[in-house]
Amino acid sequence: MSTLQARQPHDRTSAIPGTGKHPGSRGGWRKWAILAGFLSPAIVFLGAFVVYPIVYTLVRSFFSARGGEFVGFDNYVAMFTSESTFTAIRNNVIWVIVAPAACTVLGLIFAVLLEKLRWKTAFRLIIFMPMAISMLAAGVIFRSIFDANPDRGVVNAVVVGAQSAFGESASYPGAKPRPDLGLTQDGGIIATDETVSPGSMQDFALTGVRQDNLPDDAEQASAADEPNGSQIAGTVFLDVIRGGGGTNGEIEDGKSGLPGVRVDAVAPDGSIHGFATTGADGTYVIEEGLDPSESYTIALPAANFDEGAQGVDWLGASLINVVVILSYIWIWAGFAMVMIASGLSAMDRSLQEAARMDGASEWKVFTRITAPLLAPVLVVVFVTLIINVLKIFDLVYVIPPGASKPAANVIAVEMWTVSFGGGNNQGLGSALAILLLILVLPSMIINVRRFRQERRG
Asked: Is the dihedral of CA 451, 453, 456, 457 positive or negative?
């Protein structure tokens, strides 16, 4: 009897891993209930906020703008035949190539160099501080900094100041010659009607310039000294007296000289044989390059009367992507620095010290030891930034003015525009969302695999 009992098959129901108990036992079911209780909120959350939106967006991408008609792959065809989508994809490629690499390199430089500073914590705080600013606020800041108007944009104010400081001539936009004084204006150039021989005087009485806009060094206009036989002299002045009065074309008290004006002596063949620049009182003397036997047309080049230093149109279509990417680097370089600095703090410094003792330079220590040991951290930072730039929206939406928005377009902004920003085509918007998901997935998979390898290692 005992032999028959020994031959009866055992209960093959597997035990709960790690518990040694079978599901049918009271303790086994309790373990399963606790496990389900802890996992169910996460499962519900992932299902409601990740799985369901992805599935719904995928299904919605096969329907029309209002969702009432199945259109198959028409939205995907429209997406890849749209010029705005091609611009968005091109800009996303530029973002992926430039922004993550720049942030990672700057973060590496900051992390390594700040290691040797006494006040490294304070410097790291300053560099990391832009991370505390929202992307929306950072966009507003950069849009105002790079404003085209030098009175509002800090960058253009510096550019205009530098151009004015190193410029060769002053600018008097709107200037024109006083009529009936033998002067004409053609294509911005103000010149004499008749030729002038060396040894003669030639004044230029101009109007159209506000006295409030005159340079600070402008003085009372005065008559030039009598030239010798190889010179041509004269005065360029503002033929206006504040409050009115005076005689047209005459140099009188209250009339200001125009300093910094270039005056050319132009030969009959169009070549320039001499030039001079007016002083604070508007006087000039052309003495080099003149032939006493010839006559010249005395001209004021158009460069004297342009708008002057106006800065750069940073927010125009040609440079808007540069400005937006700079704002992103300003924000995220601090993140890269902190991540890389944490990797540096965990590094075994004995290898670096041994290399220095063997006579290796700091550059070789950095390239042969520090950078290779930081490679895992650099890869994580770089891939994380790639995922981030593929989804960039805030900066691209806020910084570009209306005329430059198409040039700065990216996939996330295009998706929002066609769905909610006036396009009202959520079928096409869903197709763009799926495209963005497909582009992000490879970087996410790389990160997940790297985390798994680190855990196994």
From this structure: negative
Cα 435 from Cα 79, distance rounded (Å): 10
Q: What is the pLDDT of residue 10?
A: 47
169-196: per-residue pLDDT in tens? Answer: 567 888 899 888 889 998 889 999 999 9
Q: Measured in whole angstroms, how far is the alpha carbon of residue 372 from the centre of its chain?
A: 31
Burial class (CB in 10 A: 0-12, 13-18, 19+), 197: middle
Question: What confidence tens digit (pLDDT) does each residue in 385-439 have?
Answer: 999 999 999 999 999 998 899 999 999 999 999 988 777 899 999 999 999 999 9
At 271, phi and psi to the nearest 5? Answer: -80, 150
Distance CA 395, CA 95 (A): 12
**Cβ neighbours, 10 Å, residue 266:** 20
* 352 and 370 Cβ atoms separated by less than 8 Å: yes
Query: Order of strands, edge to edge, in the sheet holding 232-238?
Result: 176-177, 204-207, 232-238, 283-286
- Please list the residue range(s) of the chain that carry CATH number 1.10.3720.10: 83-154+314-456
* Token digits of residue 288: 């080099």
Task: Name the pTM for this structure.
Answer: 0.70
Spatial contact of 147 and 156, defined as CB atoms under 8 Å apart: yes
CATH of 83-154+314-456, one of 3.30.70.260, 1.10.3720.10, 1.10.1200.120, 3.40.50.150: 1.10.3720.10
d(CA 308, CA 311): 9
Give the C-alpha separation, 164 to 157, whole Å: 10
Helix axes 411-419, 426-456, angle to 10 degrees: 140
Q: In the chain, which residues have pLDDT < 70?
A: 1-27, 164-170, 307-310, 457
Angle at 139 between CA 441 and CA 93, to 5 degrees: 35
d(CA 93, CA 107): 21
Pairing relationship of beta strands 232-238 and 204-207 according to DSSP bridges: parallel
